[in-house]
Amino acid sequence: MKLAWILWLASILPPQAxxxxxxxxxxxxxxxxxxxxxxxAVAEVALRREDSGLWGDSMCQVVTARKQxxxxxxxxxxxxxxxxxxxxxxxxxxxxxxxxxxxxxxxxEIVPGASHFLAHNIASPSWRNAYQVAQIGDHTFLxxxxxxxxxx
Length: 152
What we know:
This protein is mainly alpha-helical and 152 residues long. The protein has helices at residues 3-12, 15-31, 36-52, 59-63, 83-100; strands at 116-119, 131-136, 139-143.
């Protein structure tokens, strides 16, 4: 299936299903070749950003914010053809959303405070020297800014 089709489908689904689909597509595109922990960490950054409201009020808005995540960087014609990786991305996305719905003190956080991440082999942004929270696989997770939950 093509990314464009997934994003179109997300536009007509109920909000919760759309957000799960957008997060799944992001995990697939950003981290399908990473460990489960690496994929969970990418999901955590996206969920933390959604929680802040700075990049949008829904997961789909967050991951399609200009030049923030793969859905706006890769071609809309990109095919998500690895069904095994897709199934894993969906599972991790849903589990991450369930974890993030827990109260702050009960969540399992893998990259506490991380607001950004980068893959060294493809990115060298200006903020790459921010506070490093963790390195998991090919990704470095960084606290570039403190994000506050819009729920508080």
